[in-house]
Amino acid sequence: MSEFEVEPIPGLPALLPDGEELLWQGTPLWVPLAKRAFHVREVGIYFGVLILLRAGFILSDGDGWDVVLGSALWLVFVGLVTVAILSMLAWFYARSTIYSISSKRVIFRHGVVVPIAVNLPFKSIESAGLRVHSDGSGDIPLALIAKQKVSYLLMWPNVRPWHFSKAQPMLRAIPDVEDVAELLADALKAEAEAVPSDVAPHHPNSASPESGSTSGAETASADPLATSSSS
Fold it and tell me: What is the reported pTM?
């Protein structure tokens, strides 16, 4: 039995301390996750192009459609199996992931084979972004202060794509993302205002809780959520 099977609250490895409130929990939508993290659409297009090229080569050699169908069937089979496996992985990842936002931090609990929890206190978050996709789901990447680092591989797929050197944890493929972004912005603002501005930057331990992955992170004020959208 893993520690996550006895979570006091699903997604939280322990009860929150007194004075800290759980504001929101959510999980990724598996279909958007399959499209944007596992790239099932691009994989399907890739196999489609392979099939067309194969058919073109066979026809250019003077063979008939019966030869084309016989030759392309195995590519169709391999393509369908590949897309099915990637879709199944996306479903498992979505089911094993829980994002939590409290009044003090953001918590990622994820992992299919080896579940892990990554705890990001608000003081370790430099800024947050928002990306809304045409299907209504969206992403909230979190830029961290310089001394707070996370592993890209450890966080994947809950990480902003292509930001390898300074990985940004990301709440990915979540529904009602604009409402969640507004909630997070309000929580970050409230936490920043609760820490005296003349004390916070010079006393890293003045706010709790501490991160589970690193220590000694300096207090940082959080920028309001910057909003962008894509189709």
Answer: 0.77
